[in-house]
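Narrative progress, year one. The postdoctoral researcher (J.K.) led the effort to move from monomer predictions toward full complexes, under supervision of the PI. The following entry was the first complex the group processed end to end, covering 567 residues in total.
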Amino acid sequence: MNKDKIDFILSLADSSLILAQRNGEWCGHGPVLEQDIAITNITLDLIGQARCLYQYAADHINQSADQPVNPATEDSLAFLRTEREFKNCLLAEQSNGDWGQTILRQFFFSTYQYFLYQQLKDKGTDTTLSAIAEKSLKEITYHVRWSSEWVIRLGDGTEESKRRMEAGIENLWPYTGELFAPADYEEEMAIDFKTIKTKWAEKINSVLTEATLTHPDGGIFMHTGGKTGTHTEQLGYILAEMQYMQRAFPGCEW
Amino acid sequence: MVSPDFENSFQKKIDSEIKIEPKDWMPDAYRKTNIRQISQHAHSEVVGMLPEGNWIGRAPSLKRKAILLAKVQDEGGHGLYLYAAAETLGISRDEMINDLHTGKAKYSSIFNYPTLTWADIGAVGWLVDGAAIMNQVMLTRTSYGPYARGMVRICKEESFHQRQGFESLLVLSRGTKEQKEMCQDAINRWWWPALMMFGPHDNESQHSEQSMLWKIKRKSNDELRQNFVVMIAEQIKTLGMKLPDPDLKWNEERKHYDFGEINWEEFWQVVKGNGPCNKQRLEARRKAHDEGQWVRDAAMAYAKKESKKTPTN
């Protein structure tokens, strides 16, 4: 496997893990017990995806020509890379904000993941990746359903909830463009980002409309860089927390 | 006035091990005691999510992170079953949560202790869930039907948590010098608070006598505590660690472990609200509830709109 492919798999894994890390902050602090449990389910699914992908990437890193001295593992990839090496999309690392912003982040991300993973599943040239995508899609389908239902509920709920959702969209929208702008390592992956973007926009549009929320206009500036390791300031803190144990006690079994 | 017949037939049912069900007649005090106990238990599950949730972000491996998340999520699920069980007695979840937030209802004091290192997560699973199980296994046979049935399911998950906690400590106990120290330190800090979970000595326990008669409780605080000490004193040998009690020793005559006296002054201080984390735990629960108000309001408003749209037949 070439380096581009490994980078691509790492970027998929990183996005799932970083979003899981963010969602995990809600555990025990949700707005109602049922939803505390629901978002933790999603967090667990995302960690599961990240683990499958890291394990797959690790196998290939360990077989590659410039294999590392210490073999790569799911944990070395998650806990021992720096903020400039992480390739998650910027959307995943954005702060939870209120429950509305967390819901919107999940909705934007899961919808993107849904259409991307459809292509990974159908491509068939890489049977492992295709199998991971197929397994993940079962979960992602639920994530899209759960988050879109909440977008509608909160958009069309009260004056306050609508106001908060509009603010959430304004905060997160500038991080959605990056999802469809291929990074250099994605060029070779034969992914049709244009189709993903079209389908994503259709889904987002229909849900925002049902939620009676304003759809952002086309001229908004989009941030990029996450997929190639140039992040917002938030990622450094996420990693500082997440990687603390592995950094403080290197080389231990846990 | 309640007819003595009702009282008699109620006690007869209890004596012949027939479960009391929500629609059955029951004395007010039985209802109240069950509401108090089940809601306190539900609150303990939910507040208990906080000290362990404290380490989700910092779990040392992806596997441990997933295990911890699933565990804390289970506690939330237990909270749900228990709130639902208490609701069958005629109190709403909102009322119960309000009682927690105003300080009227209690939760297990153990969760007012801090989780300072990763080893605390293992120690909480092993010792705290372990102590809880002693109590909960007994409660699978409690006289109130919905509570007993809820406990059957909860016990299965709790015993799994206890094994996970122990396994996590076992890895530390076989690890580096620092990991071993971390493990022993966590055991030192959690041992005595875990013993306190069984409550005051039998002769000082406020609610015990009537609860035994009604078979809400079936074993006394001291009896359960003694069983726990025996179990842990054996299990710790596998870890190669020590319990922080110089008086702990096998009593050949009584065929159990003798152990030292609990610091009851500390116990009562924590109960009164002066434990290391009482304020922050309650504050975290209130904050989650208050900040979630708009979400719950919006969900209600949306549900109302929807029900108007689709007329029911």
